[in-house]
Design a protein that fits this description.
Layout lengths: L2 H13 L4 H8 L3 H10 L8 H12 L1
Length: 61
């Protein structure tokens, strides 16, 4: 995992310009890893049904 990629994803996510699944994809990690990083850094995260649907579509093709 690249620290630069994670930080870029966190910055964009924090600005609200990308979703949680997109942030995880940009960082090259799973959503679960991204959530753990957000919690570790005490960054509030938003994850709703549309985020789950987006993740499942990308995962399942």
């Amino acid at each position: 995992m690249s620290d630069w990629r994670v930080q870029t994803a966190l910055d964009k996510y924090g600005q609200g310009s990308i979703t949680l699944p997109r942030a995880a994809e940009l960082a090259g990690i799973s959503i679960y890893e991204m959530i753990a990083i957000l919690e570790e850094r005490k960054i509030p995260y938003r994850y709703d049904l549309s985020d789950l649907e987006e993740y499942l579509k990308k995962r399942n093709g």
